[in-house]
Amino acid sequence: MYSVTTPKPAQHAAGRPAPRPADSEDRTRDRVLSAVLEHGPVSAAELGDMLNVTPAAVRRHLDALTEAGVVEVKRVATSGTGAGRPARRYVLTSRGQSTIGDDYLDIARKALERLAEVGGRSAVEDFAHERFAAMERRYQPLVDAAGDDVEARSRALAEALTADGFVASAASVQGKAPLPAHLASVQLCQGHCPVQQLAAEFPVFCDSETAAFSRLLGVDVRRLSTLAQGGHVCTTHIPTGRAKLTPADPETATKQHERP
């Protein structure tokens, strides 16, 4: 677990060391970091409530973790806020993820490498397809509730992704004259990816996620950039002026990727 070094405690006049508060501070800081990992993007107020720590203490620890480069602020639009400022929410940086998750990342990477050795790359592909098919099944009712409009479905998908910690947003890009109306689109951006480092080695994770988005939205989407390949965010181009495709059932989509 990551700990930020704290100053040495002062001594009593008699020469005996004062009770060391650093251990307690470090433990609280580690709890804050763990909570950001588990619940991020999360606000300082939410962290204070779940950890039973004063707002001032939470912000002090968040400031230290941000300065250390393991936590960063994401501004997330909150429904019902109108034209007000986006909420400040905290997520782990790539450095923070690797700092506290090296063992798990290493285990996951070795497991996938072993899976590829035993079953070939197709076995890794099948695993990735199954993972995102499960996500697709969870998101389908949320996206369907937005109706048939592709832009509305895109925003519903962004909300579902944000609830899962992807820090997503959907922005409309309208085709301007003399450009034809069919060039209108939505850009779906994700500022956080929990499998970023694995996806860098196994791009099929990004490919499978993109295919799941296409089926959820009912249009042929295109990935413009990914965090795994060094992009600032994952950006997906979603055309809104084209004819809809027929969304595939997630289970059917998974079976289509199975190898004989």
TrEMBL record:
SMART domains associated with the record: HTH_ARSR
Pfam families noted in UniProt: HTH_20 (PF12840)
Limits of the HTH arsR-type domain: 26-113
InterPro entries: ArsR-like_HTH, Carb_Metab_HTH_regulators, HTH_ArsR_DNA-bd_dom, WH-like_DNA-bd_sf, WH_DNA-bd_sf
Region annotation (Disordered) ranges: 1-28, 238-260
SUPFAM superfamilies: Winged helix' DNA-binding domain (SSF46785)
Database matches in Gene3D superfamilies: Winged helix-like DNA-binding domain superfamily/Winged helix DNA-binding domain
Domain of life: Bacteria
PANTHER family: HTH-TYPE TRANSCRIPTIONAL REGULATOR SRLR-RELATED (PTHR30363), TRANSCRIPTIONAL REGULATORY PROTEIN-RELATED (PTHR30363:SF28)
Protein name as annotated: Transcriptional regulator
